[in-house]
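TL;DR need structure tokens for one chain.
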Amino acid sequence: MDSPIGNAIEVAEAIECRHDNGPDDIMDLVYSLGAQVLHQNCKTLSTQEARHQMIDIISSGAALRKFRDMIIAQGVSEPIADSLCKPGADMFKILPKAQNVTVIICKKEGQTWLKIHHDAPLQRELIADIDSIISVIPPDEVVINESRISDFVS
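>> reply
TL;DR here they are.
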């Protein structure tokens, strides 16, 4: 996979669901699972009542407002949170793309094991920590070390 898609698609779909515009199968899953959680935590609600409450919470915009508050609490600026939560927003123009990709290879030559997408180059200390367990190839140089990961795998 040369161009992993990241989690922007999942974020976009989560926001669309909070606008009550998600695909029918996803919305049914959201209502069903949410109803189960509500039913288990509010024993006075039947599963059907809990499902109706989930539908009301999403259609009223309360779920979207709570999502906005949550992403702001996690460090997203208010203007970006507001832009993401606007109806019809082009989230792929708003959500950032990683500026750097670091490839972590597996011991079998020629196969990429993991790619890390990140906004800034990895600090040497982080690379050293990771490299003590697995081989890391920073984008600007090639590092060949024996991996110790086999010590942990039987």
